[in-house]
Amino acid sequence: MNKIPLFSYKELIVWQRSVELAKSVYFLTRDFPSEERFGLISQIRRSAISIPSNIAEGRSRGTRLDFIRFLKIAYGSGAELETQIEIAKEVFRVKISSYTKTETLLGEVMKMLNVMIKRMNSDSIKAN
Fold first, then answer.
1. Most exposed of 68, 70, 83, 93 (fewest Cβ within 10 Å)?
2. What confidence tens digit (pLDDT) does each residue in 96-116 have?
3. 37 is in which domain, residue-wise?
4. Exposed (0-12), middle (13-18) or buried (19+): which is 66, by Cβ within 10 Å?
5. How far, in Å, CA of 53 to CA of 14, rounded?
6. In whole angstroms, what is the distance from residue 28 CA to residue 24 CA?
7. Is the whole-model pTM more than 0.90?
8. Which of 75, 57, 69 is nearest to 111 (CA)?
9. What is the total count of domains within the chain?
10. Looking at the domain assignment, is residue 91 inside a domain?
11. 3 occurs within a structural domain
């Protein structure tokens, strides 16, 4: 089990951007119909919050393998969020332009997570 260098998850740009994403999701979903409060709004918000939460938990575990596993979970939550946003765009009559910031942030976070996972996996292979 390779240890990873000690520094706070708060220093990770991917964590910082995913927190911005979660805030953007909260602002976006305020305009959704109130009857969806316990439906799609709840699902979308949970998926968004799951991304930085899993990055933080994985980073705090202290091993490379744990960190990779939690980055993959965060990536999966991003895929869920992407799907839920697509559904919301079709179902709710919120202007499509309202989604732009959230979708841009989500795209950035997903790319960063993908690169981190690939690099950390290849580093693990090189270390063995």
1. 93
2. 788 999 999 999 999 999 999
3. 12-127
4. middle
5. 11
6. 6
7. no
8. 75
9. 1
10. yes
11. no
